[in-house]
Amino acid sequence: MQAAQQQFTPDLRPPRLRHSMSELGRVFLEMGWSTVLRPVLSSLPRGDGHTVMTIPGFMGADGSTASLRRFLGERGYNAVPWGLGRNAAEVRSRNLDDFLEHRAHMEDVIASRVEREFIASGRKVTLIGWSLGGLYAVALAHRLPRLVRQVITLGTPFGDPRGTALYSVMGSLYDNDVDEQALQRWVAHTYRGGPLRVPVLALFSKSDGIVGPGIARCEGDPEYVTNMAVMASHVGFPFNPLVFAIIGNHLAQPDDRWAICRSERIGPFVEVQPAG
Questions:
Q1: ∠ CA 59-239-212 to the nearest 5 degrees?
Q2: What DSSP string runs through the chain?
Q3: How would DSSP label each residue in 14-76?
Q4: How far does Cα 265 stand from its chain's mean position?
Q5: Half-sphere exposure (CA, 13 Å, Cβ side) for 141?
Q6: What does DSSP say about strands 200-204 and 125-130: parallel, antiparallel, or unpaired?
Q7: Cα(79)–Cα(83) distance, rounded to whole angstroms?
Q8: What is the crossing angle of helices 241-252 and 23-31, to 10°?
Q9: Rounded alpha-carbon distances, angstroms, from residue 252 to 15, 44, 184
Q10: Is there a contact between 143 and 130 (Cβ–Cβ < 8 Å)?
């Protein structure tokens, strides 16, 4: 889907206050689900050893995705961090276009690292991006189909950033009000790198306390994009055993990616939704 065809998501309602206020407490509850889901996690097919790179969210570093990489390593994948420190920690934007310039620069740097991993293994790389990291990952999927095998995003704000709980805070970075054209450029950037030719699984949560559901779905080519609502907090995505189970099945079962959704332990907590 070309960038010009992207629709600017009109639903800018931020997350419900009760979801935002309960974020941290819910993380610990979600981590406790590992006991209930242990039979599902242990029965997942083994991975094929290809490289999976994790990309942290805004102000997150590799430690935030360490549990996910450990899980992927145990399943048989070569799980690697992005290795670029804290995401966007150095941004000193005067306006949204400044932040967009930084974002484009980071995508170039990540692309170089993906290419190195591809050359080292001779195999395409899967990208898993959390929140802001998911925007990088989908943009690179459009740009680098010869290097990227597939993308999985976790709680990524694909639409107008005014639909996030952080926008009022982020707005203090800017000297001037952000205009509609700048917001359009921000949204369209994710999809502008060329036709999408690799699968994208966008996991989002209707109870996300940071990213409103109106901006949480990837609006890329529906032939390749699948949006899936899961029960998760925003902060909990890279620690959530339910999310791990979905990722593990998705990576290992290319011919039946949604088999796990039929599980009685998983099915009630997920909902596949169309893109577009």
A1: 60
A2: --GGG-------PPPPHHHHHTHHHHHHHHHTTHHHHHHHHHTSPPP---EEEEE--TT--GGGGHHHHHHHHHTT-EEEE--S-STTTT---SSHHHHHHHHHHHHHHHHHHHHHHHHHHSS-EEEEEETHHHHHHHHHHHH-TTTEEEEEEES---S-GGGBTTHHHHGGG-SSPPPHHHHHHHHHHTTTTS---S-EEEEE-TT-SSB-GGG-S--S-TTTEEEEEES--TTTGGG-HHHHHHHHHHHH-TT-TTGGGGSTTTGGGEEEE---
A3: PPPHHHHHTHHHHHHHHHTTHHHHHHHHHTSPPP---EEEEE--TT--GGGGHHHHHHHHHTT
A4: 23
A5: 31
A6: unpaired
A7: 12
A8: 60
A9: 33, 8, 36
A10: no
pLDDT digits (tens, 9 = 90+) for 81-128: 999 999 988 887 778 888 999 999 999 999 999 999 999 999 999 999
Q: Domain 3-273 has what CATH class?
A: alpha beta
How far is 92 from 95, CA to CA, in rounded Å?
A: 9
pLDDT in tens, 223-259: 999 999 999 999 999 999 999 999 998 898 766 666 6
Angle at 56 between CA 198 and CA 102, to 5 degrees: 85
Could you tell me the two tokens for 26?
């819910």
Tokens of 176: 């001037």
